[in-house]
Amino acid sequence: KDDNYHIKIDSEIRPGALTYGEFFIQGKTKEEVLISCHICHPSLCNDNLSGIIIATFIAGFLQTLKTRFSYRFLFIPGTIGSIAWLSRNENKLQNIKYGLVLTLLGDTSPFHYKKSRRGNAEIDKIMEFLLRNESNSQIREFSPYGYDERQFCSPGFNLPVGRFSRKPHGEFPEYHTSADNLDFVKPVSLGESFRLLLKVIMLIENNLKYINLNPKGEPQLGKRGLYRQIGGESRQKDYEMALLWILSFSDGDNSLLDIAIRSGIDFSVISDAAQKLQHSSLLSAC
Amino acid sequence: KDDNYHIKIDSEIRPGALTYGEFFIQGKTKEEVLISCHICHPSLCNDNLSGIIIATFIAGFLQTLKTRFSYRFLFIPGTIGSIAWLSRNENKLQNIKYGLVLTLLGDTSPFHYKKSRRGNAEIDKIMEFLLRNESNSQIREFSPYGYDERQFCSPGFNLPVGRFSRKPHGEFPEYHTSADNLDFVKPVSLGESFRLLLKVIMLIENNLKYINLNPKGEPQLGKRGLYRQIGGESRQKDYEMALLWILSFSDGDNSLLDIAIRSGIDFSVISDAAQKLQHSSLLSAC
Amino acid sequence: KDDNYHIKIDSEIRPGALTYGEFFIQGKTKEEVLISCHICHPSLCNDNLSGIIIATFIAGFLQTLKTRFSYRFLFIPGTIGSIAWLSRNENKLQNIKYGLVLTLLGDTSPFHYKKSRRGNAEIDKIMEFLLRNESNSQIREFSPYGYDERQFCSPGFNLPVGRFSRKPHGEFPEYHTSADNLDFVKPVSLGESFRLLLKVIMLIENNLKYINLNPKGEPQLGKRGLYRQIGGESRQKDYEMALLWILSFSDGDNSLLDIAIRSGIDFSVISDAAQKLQHSSLLSAC
Fold it and tell me: Which end of chain B is less packed: N or C, by CB atoms within 10 Å?
């Protein structure tokens, strides 16, 4: 309650060491996806035990797969941790193609994504695409305040790193209080956050650009077994439209994500259709 | 009514020939305007006897004029016809500067224009400009489904060809039924469609870029007989504003269409004013 | 009242001279700000004694300062005056970096700004930024009608000159009548117009681009005395956010105005913060 309190802060400044965790999964290419979470107050459950848990489970899941990209997970104290890591790893930064800071992923509010400083990085486009199907989700422009995206996006690095959370810091009453505890974090919320990140990774892994190998007029899809034999409504309508969209826009400029955005068709349908077209020698990866 | 029907399809596959109609009007330049319509089911009145009729009347009308552009009319069976024509005429495709697929032009619904795959071709700009004055008209983005724009716009050709129709295919109950007959198509609708295409052609023919030959400060228009001698409201206000807009924006970058869009003045007034300025040696065609 | 009147216009055409006023304030650089007003009917109080008065007071005020830019004031008869001045000073035009035509600044209607023909000149960006905080203010696109912006923006010159007024010409009943008199013009309106122009000049003078000299991660602001020592709400919150915004976006591409627009923080706070950062050797002017 409102009253006057005496607070004793018993601290000292002395030489010490900074500890952080780093976990790397080697993919087929040296291009990297960076996943970072702050570990400096894990006793607060949403901020940021939730981010730590999600990052850990994503890492565990990816270990079981063969991935195209390499994945690097950072478990670091906020601000000083990211600055220390950046300072020690400048030579690796050019490999980072996508990045996310994970935080506040266990409460029940809708998803928020804060764009990278670039504002038009591929990760920004991916998150905008995926969140437009998530009810009440919000996209925010970059601002130089918040979590470790401040450091990853500082102008000397300007990495393509955004921030994925639910309700942003400071915008809920439990923030930085003892009420940010196990009751505030819900398993179903953690599960949804995990599920959305799997979609992000699926999209990153499969977001290739292709070239239509038969670009002058439409190829006959029926005789290649790609198209239904009779007309009418059909559950595979999205799939067949996906074939046409991919053939029309696979000119080397448009990624599968670009085609999904333009067509409004689910990315997984687009991705499946692209593989079918590739098997029929109608499409070639750039 | 809803019931079970037995349908006998008596067809065979054997060697044959494909027939299509092509009509060419030579203009002053070899640059071409392509007008295409599908003839594969002319017994359906709106889809597509209406397109065939409009194309035929436009061709007849243009024969009586001396045009700047050449005009090519195709009367082809859908899909296979356009693919066949494209395959036999690849060397001519570079001459095509504007193109329209004509279909469904006789019913009473508002005009629809579907943009070319490029999305920003001159024909797209022209149709957007002209349809913004047509009540309830709609502009749609390109999609790889529909009529022969699918072939003309396939990525290996990517021609500046859009589609002009009234209610699009599949969006009215008479579509592909015996109810698409002479009662469904109205003379006044055909007339309006014809009239709008004349505006398109007038705009294509007159959409030049000019250079202001007196670009430093405004020239005195009154002493050149281009401007009213006394002030006040006047029916020729649009015309006089057109003179000023043309002089201000004729820097070699802006076409008369660009100036009409920017000023909101009717294209025919802009075009007339440009000719007056040219006669007074204030303007020169690029 | 409505009736028939006989009007005798007693005029003659004979050789004469055109008189205009020009006042120049030398700044540190030869880059110029042009302020122009028409003097051809000063008996009409709003159109344009108001513009003449405001320009005169701005000139008087600037004389007392050391400015970065040079300032040139023109007091000219409309149309013929600006054409005459432009014709005699073509060699100076390249120095003009910003310009405003001042007119109709004494009535009580909201501010209007008409953009330069370029539409994206720095002066356009500045006026849009400042007027978005002025209630009911309006921004209009360039049109080749109005006051001397017609000449300054004619395509052969295309100078970055916009027009600043309150209610535009012809849009109020007192326009060009004897009712445009001292009663129609209000001191408080003149004062507000003057105040807004001071903001424009303050912004022009201070709108530099900087480079963050410590761009890899955020510098520690507290130990440099730039940041509050304890957390919590604070009146200097805007100032501290300004420090972060400037450090984040001072990459040589963004001006302080760009940063003010992006952050939503008042330009004067941004400008003060930039000076503090410069004194701490964290920032260098480009």
Answer: N
How far are the Cα atoms of C23, C24, C67, C72, C205 from residue C63, in angstroms, in the given order?
Answer: 11, 10, 9, 12, 14
Q: What distance, in Å, lies between the first and last C-alpha atoms of chain C?
A: 63
Residues of A in contact with B144 (CB under 8 A): 218, 241, 244-245, 247-249
Residue A228: the pLDDT is 73
C141 in a structural domain:
yes
Query: B12-30 burial string, b = 16+ CB within 10 Å, else e?
Result: eeeeeeeebeebebebeee
Q: B145 and A218 in contact by Cβ < 8 A?
A: no
Dihedral of CA B114/B117/B119/B121: which sign?
negative
Q: Which of C83, C90, C144 sits opposite B248 (nearest CB)?
A: C144
Alpha-carbon span B126 to B200, nearest angstrom:
7
Closest C-alpha among A143, A101, A157, A78 to residue C216:
A157
Question: Order of strands, edge to edge, in the sheet holding A251-255?
Answer: A251-255, A209-212, A283-285
Could you list the residue range(s) of the whole structural domain that residue A276 is in? 209-285
The CATH number for C237's domain is 1.10.10.10
| CATH classification of the domain holding B87 | 3.40.630.10
My answer on whether A126 and A249 are in the same domain is no
Query: Which chains are within 8 Å of A by 3+ CB pairs?
Result: B, C
pLDDT in tens, A124-167: 999 999 999 999 999 999 999 999 999 999 999 999 999 999 98
Q: How many domains does chain B have?
A: 2
Nearest Cα to A38, choosing from A155, A188, A185, A152?
A152
C154/chain B closest Cα distance in angstroms: 5
Q: Give me the residue from C241, C249, C250 closest to A145, CB to CB.
A: C241
Residue B220: inside a domain: yes
> What is the full DSSP assignment across A30-72?
S-EEEEEEE-S-TTSIIIIIHHHHHHHHHHHHHHTS--SSEEE
Last residue of a domain, one of C206, C239, C268: C206
Looking at the structure, do residues C105 and C184 belong to the same domain, yes or no?
Answer: yes
**What radius of gyration, in Å, describes the C-alpha atoms of chain B?**
22
Is there a domain that residue A4 lies in? no
User: Do B65 and B84 fall into the same domain?
Assistant: yes
The low-confidence residues of chain B, meaning pLDDT below 70, are 229-235
ipTM of the complex: 0.89
Instruction: Give residue-wise pLDDT tens across range C175-229.
Output: 999 999 999 999 999 999 999 999 999 999 999 999 999 999 999 998 898 887 6
Mutual angle of helices A267-279 and A256-263, in 10-degree steps:
120
The arithmetic mean of pLDDT across residues A108-134, rounded, is: 97
Residue C90, classified by CB atoms within 10 Å of its CB into exposed (0-12), middle (13-18) or buried (19+), is exposed
**In Å, how far is B272's CA from the nearest CA of chain A?**
40
pLDDT at A230 over 80: no
Percent of chain A with pLDDT over 90: 91
Q: Cα(B38)–Cα(B59) distance, rounded to whole angstroms? A: 16
Residue A13 counted as domain residue: no
Q: Is the pLDDT of residue C236 over 80?
A: no
